[in-house]
């Protein structure tokens, strides 16, 4: 077995182990944040197994996992059994495969003489990582639709339909937010996008604020988190597409949901917040082990901050109605995404014409102009459709006569 293959297997094992552990303990973190927002204690009783140590409920994820695994594997008689089993496996496999192109810190020196340098990414030769991520993220919707269809249940079917409509509607603003980054960096490679931001020292969050807002809101919707959890809202659809699921199959759906949130956080950090870059860090691709470790810590810290933001929003923001969800996508996010793409294209052309060497004063002028475009676009949208997401009761609608 070659050294390259051994290194790839080790990276895959570390990545999957880290993601599964992170998903488990992020559930505990979210429950603690929910308790903090709702002014209660949260999970704090389950400690380390076979001991009396109870530290902040650290045993809770293990207890939850064992509960799911030991539950009876029940399959309702009225479902389509092949699609019913395939749906959760498909959605989890797609969610895990996305991380093959996520870069964690450049390239480190080989462990022994004769060995090639080790890139800190599972698939280092994939220079179209952005396309790969979006292709696999689009596959996730098929897992949801299959689960809703195979369950042979009206609530599950409605959840699957809602999910497909929602994901298709928000794919467009998500892609438009991403295209601004691709235009600015001139690459579809995630590692190259980070290097461009590290070389210039300007994160795209500052240069493209409108793109960041559009991409973040669309990523919330793609991850189906509150206030965009219409496909599974308990009050209306009693769980939506996974109403008929239990045990390990339900666990696969829930883990995939958290992995989608982690993927969205990684993409936001890599595309708009410089990935592993921090001012003062070397911007070279090939680095020492110490620098690689520092980059991994910086990247993880940024991703954790975005995930905490996701969680705080989930527990403090009311759910949209479905008509509001669609109106937000087509009447607000899509026009803003188009404005951002046009503005970035114009600024890039002007920068190539007037400032090909990257002078600081003109670069600052373009950043200020981007913020001006962002403020003007939001003002125009607010004036054109001020009630798109208004949750107040509609007095102009007459109730149906019975």
Question: Top keywords for this entry?
Answer:
2 domains, mainly alpha, 402 residues
Q: TL;DR?
A:
The chain is an all-alpha fold and 402 residues long.
Describe this entry's structure for a reader.
This protein has 402 residues and is mostly helical. The chain folds into two domains: 1-70, no CATH class; 75-110 and 117-382, no CATH class. The protein has helices at residues 3-37, 60-70, 81-97, 129-150, 154-185, 190-200, 204-207, 209-222, 234-237, 247-272, 289-314, 322-354, 360-384, and strands spanning 107-108, 118-119, 286-287. A three-stranded mixed sheet has the order 2-1-3. Helix 5 (154-185) packs parallel to helix 12, helix 8 runs antiparallel to helix 10 (247-272) and helix 12 (322-354) runs antiparallel to helix 13 (360-384). The radius of gyration is 23 Å and the shape is globular. The relative contact order is 0.12.
State the distance separating the first and last CA atoms.
75 Å
- Which parts are unreliable, with pLDDT below 50 for 5 consecutive residues or more? none
Number of strands: 3
Q: Structural class of the helix and strand makeup?
A: mainly alpha
Report the C-alpha radius of gyration, rounded: 23 Å
| Overall helicity | 55-70%
**Tally of separate helices:** 13
Overall number of domains: 2
Calculate the mean pLDDT score and round it.
82
User: How many strands, which pairing sense, and closed or not: the largest β-sheet?
Assistant: 3 strands, mixed
The proportion of residues in beta strands is under 5%
Query: What is the strand arrangement across the widest sheet?
Result: 2-1-3
Strand and helix order: HHHEEHHHHHHHEHHH
């Amino acid at each position: 077995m070659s050294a390259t293959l051994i290194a790839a297997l080790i990276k895959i094992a570390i990545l999957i182990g880290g993601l599964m552990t992170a998903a488990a303990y992020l559930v505990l973190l979210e429950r603690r944040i929910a308790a903090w927002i709702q002014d209660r204690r949260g999970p704090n009783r389950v400690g380390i197994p076979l001991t009396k140590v109870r530290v902040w409920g650290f045993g809770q994820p293990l207890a939850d996992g064992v509960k799911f695994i030991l539950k009876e594997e029940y399959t309702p008689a009225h479902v389509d059994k092949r699609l019913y089993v395939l749906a959760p496996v498909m959605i989890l496999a797609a969610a895990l495969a996305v991380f093959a192109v996520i870069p964690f810190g450049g390239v480190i020196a080989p462990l022994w003489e004769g060995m090639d340098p080790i890139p800190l990414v599972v698939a280092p030769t994939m220079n179209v990582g952005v396309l790969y991520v979006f292709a696999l993220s689009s596959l996730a919707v098929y897992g949801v639709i299959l689960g809703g269809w195979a369950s042979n249940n009206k609530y599950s079917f409605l959840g699957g339909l809602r999910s497909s409509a929602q994901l298709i509607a928000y794919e467009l603003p998500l892609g438009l937010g991403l295209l601004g980054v691709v235009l600015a960096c001139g690459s579809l490679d995630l590692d190259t996008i980070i290097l461009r931001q590290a070389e210039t020292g300007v994160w795209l969050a500052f240069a493209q604020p409108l793109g960041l807002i559009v991409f973040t809101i669309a990523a919330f919707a793609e991850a189906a988190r509150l206030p965009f959890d219409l496909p599974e809202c308990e009050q209306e659809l009693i769980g939506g597409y996974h109403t008929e699921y239990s045990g390990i199959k339900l666990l696969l759906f829930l883990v995939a949901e958290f992995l989608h949130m982690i993927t969205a956080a990684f993409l936001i950090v890599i595309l708009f917040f410089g990935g592993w870059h921090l001012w003062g860090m070397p911007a070279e691709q090939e680095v020492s082990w110490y620098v690689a470790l520092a980059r991994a810590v910086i990247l993880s810290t940024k991703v954790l901050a975005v995930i905490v933001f996701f969680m705080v929003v989930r527990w403090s923001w009311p759910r949209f109605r479905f008509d509001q969800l669609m109106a937000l996508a087509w009447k607000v996010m899509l026009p803003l995404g188009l404005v951002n793409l046009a503005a970035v294209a114009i600024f890039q052309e002007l920068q190539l014409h007037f400032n090909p060497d990257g002078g600081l004063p003109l670069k600052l002028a373009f950043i200020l102009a981007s913020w001006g475009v962002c403020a003007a676009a939001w003002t125009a949208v607010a004036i054109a459709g001020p009630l798109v997401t208004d949750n107040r009761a509609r007095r102009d609608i007459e109730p149906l006569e019975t």
